[in-house]
């Protein structure tokens, strides 16, 4: 696990550098077990940084969604680096962003966190409801949950997030400084969850998704949390041309979710930020994972693993499968 | 365009092609009710002169500012009607085609449903037409030069025609000599002209023509640019011989330590050559070439004390220090004349080619009957792979045996799904007849048999020639042999005479496989250079099978000869002349119009990911740094001269920031909506 003192020391050292504008990390949340993003601008801010299994957010998102306010005439934009703490899965978002030229490699300073898994906050809240303030730590193969002066141990498997159960890259694939020792891969991905859905009939699939999509409130939290969704002007909410109306109904919701999933085909790095952000419990990763599986099987391509490779959908090979063309 | 849209809708009957299925009167009545439609008419053939006159008349008298033609595919007549609009003083891009033929009448039988569908298609077109914008078609200057790739008979003929017309030609040939496959042939069917006699003067002409820059033993490495302005990079491979000094005397070849050790490619391996060689005596240019792989000095680093060729060469032309040379130049048009490979007969193992010495391909046999070939034109039995015994003093060389029976098998690798070639190679029937005739001529006592599926004697003088050969005693048996094996020193061809339904075993000394013509194995290289398409037979695809047979989908790139599909010499020459005149059109006019339906980038929303740059097949897009509210960000920029308006970028763009003119989201979306559920 990561040594918090070391983490804070490094963050202090980094934010003291002249060429670093801010450090993005985690700090304790204001309620329940949650942790929240921290934007460290001064060395003193680094004292509240933490890392725990509650640090579920993908901070790579903040690199790309930061608003670029107009620079007054005669001034130059602040081009100092952004330092960001990333888990293994989050680091893949940075690689994919680099693949897509979202920024130059020297724009970011990556602080890698080798990660042994984070919790699924829904599972935690179900097990320990109505907790005002609590902490989660990982000790061996158990999560230690402490609140109101009590401590409880729960088997890791019971609270671990699903995405961690199939994580192939626990140690960040890109980093300038590693904040802990490398974590060996403790899981693998056999896509059995996707196969369950694939086996459903067309009608069953539609019934499944109709129920899920009809819940959608179109809050766009999934889009906003996604490290790969960072267009200046999202086509899905553009007024002209209006690809989908803003009304919340099954037809428009379905169109929104299909378009969102398609825009992530060959780009989704499986961090699960969208599903985690969804207030309506829509299993967005079901769609993303189907694309992810297809992309892997059809093109032997895994997004966010190699910054040098061109993005999948911008490449063409004459050997590409075309048996889907009638 | 000023004011409200005033749209004219013109519904074509296309004879009965459309009107036979679609109720055009009803469609017109409907079209008149669509908002902004000023007039709707129908006519038997809109593309005809009176049909077009209807449109011109309405534009002039009714002040139309948009035109929808409901007829065939825009691939067929969009250009026709754009010209009509232009002639009437309306911007040609105010035209929208509604395809109610290919996408409706041709594919439906139910007249009522087809009529309803036509209405939808037309309404969608009207909705799009409302949002069309005037586009400017820019002109660019054309470089008055042509690149011709391949110097077989097609490339040679095209080069001579263009050069004679006064334009510069760069003729690039991969092998050390021009001439291609035709140079390998002895006689040509059906007239029995000597191939060399009619070809070699042209070969000499291309080498001497002041307007032709001949580059043999060279390869086109890179092509960029667009019609009128292609940038070409050619690698001239070194021959290790200074061609300005080489006199072609041949002293080097006789001196070479490796003389006679390697199969000569020109003789299809029937004759031998050394490491330094001239493919054949009439080769153009008559300059020797050192084959790097077989030269001892170049491959092993040592050839005796000094290479013998160096000593033998009087003008001191051989220089092992020479290196490849890269040449860059500009052309306006390109002709691809890369020819073919003959079918690889080992892919038909039942014919035992490569197993038995005397199963030969027709091209090998062609070299044998050629007077300047390895056997001096004699038809003899072969002992391949057997080392010649050293002649003892005074011993006479044993004369090679003349076959008593020669058997031809047609359609080897053609019209054969089992090897993936469904097409007819178009020359094998006649060259088989010609070779059969030559056997009659050169080995009069030999029995000659031809196994065939059909004899396709379709060209001028072909049937007469086929008849003549049969009258000369060549026996034709209709049947496709199933196997060749050897028994008692003879080859046995097992077949069925399908005319009498009799199985037979035919005994013979020599089998000639009439191999078909195949796309070259390096076809892919040219495709990568020029973005050509292939038809299902894998030959290069012409722009239109009937009306644009020498053009390709890429403007300024033309096809000549067998690279486009199997053809005989007169057809290859005719196509070469066609390609030459097609290539000269833009050069003669000096200007060429470039695509107007190009892409444009909205730099305020472009996120600079470069997907469009990667997918653009014409390298028309680049990422540039722009200033966006004081920030230095990357954004895509389109070079409109290079853009062909394929739309790949628009499809790839996630933020919808790159749009293709006339196919913008704002134009397409309402069109799709109009087609949707009402």
State mean pLDDT of chain B (0 to 100 scale). Answer: 94
The first-to-last residue Cα distance of chain A is 52 Å
Tell me about the biggest sheet of chain B? 5 strands, parallel
Total domains of chain B = 5
Major sheet strand order of chain A: 2-1-3-4-8
Computed over alpha carbons, the radius of gyration of chain B is 31 Å
Number of helices of chain B: 18
Helical run tally of chain A: 12
| Distance from first to last alpha carbon of chain B | 31 Å
Poorly predicted tracts of residues of chain A: none
CATH architecture of the largest domain in chain B: 3-Layer(bba) Sandwich
How many DSSP-defined strands of chain B?
Answer: 34
Biggest β-sheet description of chain A: 5 strands, mixed
State the helicity of chain B in percent bands: 25-40%
Q: Outline of chain A, from the CA principal axes?
A: globular
- Share of β-strand residues of chain B: 15-25%
Strand content of chain A: 5-15%
Strands ordered across the widest β-sheet of chain B: 10-7-6-18-29
Quick overview:
Chain A: Residues 259-288 form the 4Fe-4S ferredoxin-type domain. The complex is a heterodimer of chains A (326) and B (678). With 326 residues, chain A is of the alpha/beta class.
Please describe what this structure looks like.
The complex is a heterodimer of chains A (about 325) and B (about 675). Chain A has about 325 residues and is of the alpha/beta class. Chain A folds into 2 domains: about 170 residues, no CATH class; about 120 residues, no CATH class. In chain A, about 35% of the residues lie in helices and about 15% in strands. In chain A, the strands form 2 sheets. In chain A, strands 2-1-3-4-8 form a 5-stranded mixed beta sheet. In chain A, helix 7 crosses helix 12. The model of chain A has no long low-confidence stretch (mean pLDDT about 95). Chain B has about 675 residues and is of the alpha/beta class. Chain B folds into 5 domains: about 120 residues, Lumazine/riboflavin synthase (Rossmann fold), CATH 3.40.50.960; about 180 residues, FAD/NAD(P)-binding domain, CATH 3.50.50; about 60 residues, no CATH class; about 160 residues, FAD/NAD(P)-binding domain (3-Layer(bba) Sandwich), CATH 3.50.50; about 60 residues, Alpha-Beta Plaits (2-Layer Sandwich), CATH 3.30.70.20. In chain B, about 25% of the residues lie in helices and about 25% in strands. Chain B has 18 helices and 34 strands. In chain B, the strands form 12 sheets. A 5-stranded parallel beta sheet of chain B has the order 10-7-6-18-29. In chain B, helix 1 packs parallel to helix 5 and helix 11 runs parallel beside helix 12. The radius of gyration of chain B is 31 Å and the shape is globular. The two termini of chain B are about 30 Å apart. The model of chain B has no long low-confidence stretch (mean pLDDT about 95). Chains A and B meet through loops of A and helix 16, strand 33 and helix 18 of B.
């Amino acid at each position: 696990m990561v040594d918090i003192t070391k983490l804070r020391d490094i963050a202090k050292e980094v934010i003291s550098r002249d060429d670093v504008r801010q450090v993005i990390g985690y700090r304790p949340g204001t309620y329940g077990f949650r942790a929240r993003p921290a934007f460290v601008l001064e060395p003193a801010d680094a004292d509240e940084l933490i890392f725990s299994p509650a640090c579920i957010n993908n901070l790579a998102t903040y690199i790309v969604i930061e608003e670029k306010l107009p620079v007054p005439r005669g001034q130059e934009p602040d081009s100092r680096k952004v330092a960001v703490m990333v888990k293994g899965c989050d680091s893949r978002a940075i690689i994919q962003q680099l693949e897509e030229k979202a920024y130059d490699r020297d724009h970011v300073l990556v602080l890698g966190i080798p990660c042994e898994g984070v919790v699924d906050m829904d599972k935690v809240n179900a097990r320990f409801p109505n907790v005002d303030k609590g902490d989660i730590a990982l000790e061996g193969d158990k999560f230690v949950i402490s609140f109101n002066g009590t401590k409880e141990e729960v088997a890791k498997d019971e609270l671990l997030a699903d995405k961690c159960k199939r994580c192939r890259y626990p140690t960040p694939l890109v980093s300038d400084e590693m904040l802990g020792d490398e974590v060996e891969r403790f899981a693998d991905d056999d896509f059995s969850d996707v196969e369950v859905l694939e086996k459903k009939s067309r009608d069953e699939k539609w019934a499944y998704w109709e129920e899920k999509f009809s819940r959608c409130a179109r809050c766009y939290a999934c889009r906003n949390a996604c490290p790969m969704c960072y267009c200046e002007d999202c086509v899905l909410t553009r007024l002209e041309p209006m690809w989908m109306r803003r009304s919340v109904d099954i037809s428009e919701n379905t169109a929104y979710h299909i378009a969102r999933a398609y825009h992530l085909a060959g780009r989704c790095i499986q961090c699960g930020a969208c599903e985690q952000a969804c207030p309506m419990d829509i299993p967005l990763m079901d769609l993303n994972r189907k694309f992810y599986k297809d992309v892997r099987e059809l093109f032997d391509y895994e997004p966010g693993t190699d910054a040098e490779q061109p993005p999948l959908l911008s490449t063409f090979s004459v050997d590409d499968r075309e048996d889907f063309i009638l | 365009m000023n004011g409200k849209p005033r749209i004219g809708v013109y519904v074509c009957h296309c004879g009965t092609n459309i009107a036979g299925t679609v109720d055009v009167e009803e469609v017109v009545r409907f079209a008149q009710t669509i908002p902004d439609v000023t007039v709707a008419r129908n006519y038997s053939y809109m593309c005809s002169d009176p049909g077009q006159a209807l449109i011109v008349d309405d534009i002039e008298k009714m002040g139309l500012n948009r035109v929808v033609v409901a007829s065939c595919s825009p691939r067929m007549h969009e250009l026709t009607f754009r010209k009509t609009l232009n002639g009437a003083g309306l911007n040609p891009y105010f035209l929208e085609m509604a395809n109610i033929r290919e996408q409706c009448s041709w594919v439906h039988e139910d007249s009522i449903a087809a009529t309803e569908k036509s209405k939808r298609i037309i309404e969608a077109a009207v909705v799009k037409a409302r949002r069309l914008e005037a586009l400017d078609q820019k002109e660019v200057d054309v470089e008055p030069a042509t690149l011709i790739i391949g110097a077989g008979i097609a490339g040679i003929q095209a080069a001579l025609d263009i050069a004679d017309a006064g334009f510069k030609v760069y003729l690039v040939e991969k092998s050390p000599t021009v001439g291609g496959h035709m140079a390998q042939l002895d006689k040509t069917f059906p007239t029995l002209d000597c191939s060399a006699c009619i070809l070699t003067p042209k070969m000499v002409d291309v080498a001497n023509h002041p307007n032709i820059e001949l580059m043999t033993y060279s390869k086109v490495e890179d092509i960029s640019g667009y019609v009128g302005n292609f940038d070409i990079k050619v690698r001239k491979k070194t021959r290790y011989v200074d061609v300005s000094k080489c006199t072609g005397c041949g002293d080097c070849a006789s001196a070479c330590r490796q003389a006679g050790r390697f199969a000569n490619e020109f003789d299809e391996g029937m004759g031998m050559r050394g490491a330094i060689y001239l493919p054949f005596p009439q080769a153009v240019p008559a300059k020797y070439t050192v084959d790097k792989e077989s030269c001892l000095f170049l491959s092993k680093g040592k050839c005796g004390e000094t290479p013998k060729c160096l000593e033998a060469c009087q003008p001191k032309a051989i220089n092992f220090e020479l290196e490849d040379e890269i040449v860059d130049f500009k052309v306006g048009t390109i002709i691809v004349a890369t020819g073919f490979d003959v079918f690889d007969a080992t892919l038909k193992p039942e014919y035992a080619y490569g197993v038995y010495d005397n199963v030969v391909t027709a091209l090998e046999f062609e070299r044998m009957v050629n007077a300047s070939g390895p056997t001096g034109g004699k038809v003899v039995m072969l002992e391949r792979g057997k080392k010649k015994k050293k002649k003892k003093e005074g011993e006479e060389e044993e004369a090679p045996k003349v076959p008593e029976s020669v058997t031809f098998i047609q359609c080897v690798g053609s019209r054969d799904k089992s090897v993936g070639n469904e097409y007819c190679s178009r020359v094998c029937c006649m060259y088989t007849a010609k070779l059969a005739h030559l056997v009659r001529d050169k080995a009069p006592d030999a029995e000659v048999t031809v196994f065939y599926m059909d004899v396709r004697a379709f060209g001028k003088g072909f049937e007469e020639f086929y008849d003549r050969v049969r009258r000369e005693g060549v026996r034709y048996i209709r049947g496709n042999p199933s196997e060749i094996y050897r028994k008692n020193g003879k080859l046995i061809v097992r077949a069925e005479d399908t005319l009498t339904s009799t199985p037979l075993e035919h005994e013979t000394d020599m089998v000639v496989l009439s191999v078909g013509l195949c796309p070259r194995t390096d076809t892919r290289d040219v495709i990568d250079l020029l973005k050509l398409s292939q038809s299902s037979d894998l030959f290069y695809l012409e722009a239109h099978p009937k009306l644009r047979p020498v053009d390709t989908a890429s403007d300024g790139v033309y096809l000549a000869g067998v690279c486009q599909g199997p053809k005989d010499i007169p057809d290859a020459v005719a196509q070469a002349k066609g390609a030459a005149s097609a290539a000269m059109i833009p050069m003669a006019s000096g200007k060429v119009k470039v695509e107007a339906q190009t892409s444009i980038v909205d730099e305020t929303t472009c996120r600079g990911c470069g997907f469009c740059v990667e997918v653009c097949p014409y390298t028309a897009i680049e990422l540039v740094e722009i200033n966006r509210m004081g920030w230095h960000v990357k954004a895509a920029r389109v070079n409109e001269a290079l853009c062909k308006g394929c739309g790949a970028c628009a499809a790839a763009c996630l933020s919808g920031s790159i749009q293709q003119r006339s196919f913008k989201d704002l134009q397409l979306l309402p069109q799709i909506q109009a087609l949707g559920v009402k």
